[in-house]
Specification:
ferroxidase activity, Bacterioferritin, metal-binding, about 150 residues, Ferritin-like_SF, heme binding
């Protein structure tokens, strides 16, 4: 199978960059959380990084199946943070961007009549919406009650 529409290739390449940038950000933020003594949060952030890495792996497979070489463009730098609240806000902002990106990719594929591409991006979209919901739940818990002991320690 080869890709005939350059726009689909562009969405896949950008998706790879977004996912790998999130892996980098979640891992960096997990290390920060660990340094702050927030073991539960660090574990959760590492899990999020793993989820994003799985997305990058699936995108890589899709690119290869379409006859393209996987590659990411320049990755966005990790968002600088000063505390756990700004860490959560940075991840919430990025997850919102990724959700909007995948919504655009699904719409693009639908307009082209690319059902396979639309289904592929729609699966990623559903998973990213779940990631966003988890980040928002942590953010809400943090902003409504501060960091609980369960977020700090195992």
């Amino acid at each position: 199978m080869t890709v005939r529409e350059p726009g689909v290739a562009g969405y896949l390449g950008r998706a790879m960059s977004l996912e790998l940038a999130m892996v980098q950000q979640y891992l960096s933020h997990a290390r920060l959380a660990s340094q702050w003594g927030m073991d539960r949060a660090a574990t959760w952030l590492r899990g999020e990084a793993q989820g994003e890495m799985e997305h990058a792996d699936r995108i890589s497979g899709r690119l290869l199946a379409l006859g393209m070489v996987p590659g990411a463009s320049v990755l966005r730098p990790v968002a600088p943070v000063r505390d756990f609240g700004s860490l959560l806000q940075a991840n919430r902002d990025r997850e919102r961007e990724i959700v909007a990106f995948y919504e655009g990719a699904v719409t693009y594929c639908q307009r082209l009549g690319d059902a396979d591409g639309g289904a592929f991006f729609n699966e990623l979209l559903a998973e990213e919406r779940q990631h966003l919901a988890e980040v928002e739940a942590w953010f809400t818990a943090y902003t409504e009650g501060g960091t609980s002991r369960s977020q700090r320690r195992r």
